[in-house]
Amino acid sequence: MDLDLAQPERRAALLRLLRAGGLGAAAVGAGLWLSARSRRPQQAAVAMAQRNLSVAADPQWPAMVVAQGADPAALVRVAVERIGGMRRFVSRGDVVVIKPNIAWDRTPEQAATTNPEVVAALVRLCLDAGARKAIVTDVSVNDARSAFERSGIAAAARSAGAELVLPEARLFRDVDLRGEVLGVWPVLEPFLTADKVINVPIAKHHSLTGATLGVKNWYGILGGQRQRLHQRINESLADLLAFLRPTLTILDAYRVLMRNGPTGGSLNDVSLKETVIASTDPVAVDAYAAQAWWGLDERTLVYLRLAADRNLGTTRFDSLRVDSVRL
């Protein structure tokens, strides 16, 4: 189904599409595991231009695809196919970094980290498209090795043929982000050298911002004392998106942490939405999910407005071509 309705009816239809998805509250899995935070690496400062890895707009393809159904891997495959196929984004010989949310030492059922089946499906699609290497990495808040393993992402990524990169101190480079508020910060090296970067956040509640989605997932490219960024969180998020614009955003909303994020823990806070959203517009996909599930917009998530003001995307998701499919 191609949603192509007049506004404001079109916006209402798009929001109903997400709100109706899934089976409501899900109770799956168990356990709470938290451990030490990662260390701040020290490296010599490196000047670095902003990295725009986005693809050019193409009117033959939608700007966003919403796929819903019971199989996370199938949702990824269909969403990517509907938005132009992975070969639209990945060329033969590319090194592709796939950036899930692996911040927390949580199980997939707790919905604080990206679904491992979503990650594995993306790895396979990139390699099938001719990528020389698919790297899966994140800068975890909890102990990285534990978070990678407990989330199921380590095993899933390895089985799909990816290279796992843990955020070791030796792999950070101090970079001038050239932001309005962000200056020199340690950045994990794969994000500085990859040919393509695919952002794979999980949709969840956040106690400070109200929701954490694709742009907030960019905190995971940085080392250092990231909690300092919360002092001017909206400007920081806009700076990060301006520094690194993703090739593609795949929003994992198979399970959504509706409350008590970003760490979660209680399965009562998790809702099974059975949704994956693919988009070439990192601002639009955040605006869409935030409005549908938490009733938030650019007045609350100010970074959306700031990013749109910098022409990094649009908050008017209802102005875009959005395709939907239910498996």
Structure characteristics:
single chain, 327 residues, alpha/beta, Rossmann fold, eleven-stranded mixed beta sheet, three-stranded mixed beta sheet, 26% helix
Summarize the SSE layout with pairings.
Layout: E1 2-3, H1 9-19, E2 24-25, E3 45-46, E4 51-52, E5 64-68, H2 72-82, E6 95-100, H3 116-128, E7 133-137, H4 144-150, H5 153-160, E8 163-165, E9 172-176, E10 184-188, H6 190-193, E11 196-200, E12 202-204, H7 233-243, E13 244-245, E14 248-257, E15 270-279, H8 282-294, H9 302-309, E16 322-326
Helix pairs in contact: 1-8, 2-3, 3-5, 7-9
Give a structural overview.
By secondary structure, this protein is of the alpha/beta class. The chain has one domain (about 25-30, about 60-320): Rossmann fold (3-Layer(aba) Sandwich). Helix content is about 25%, strand content about 20%. The model is unreliable at about 25-45 (pLDDT under 50). It contains 9 helices and 16 strands.
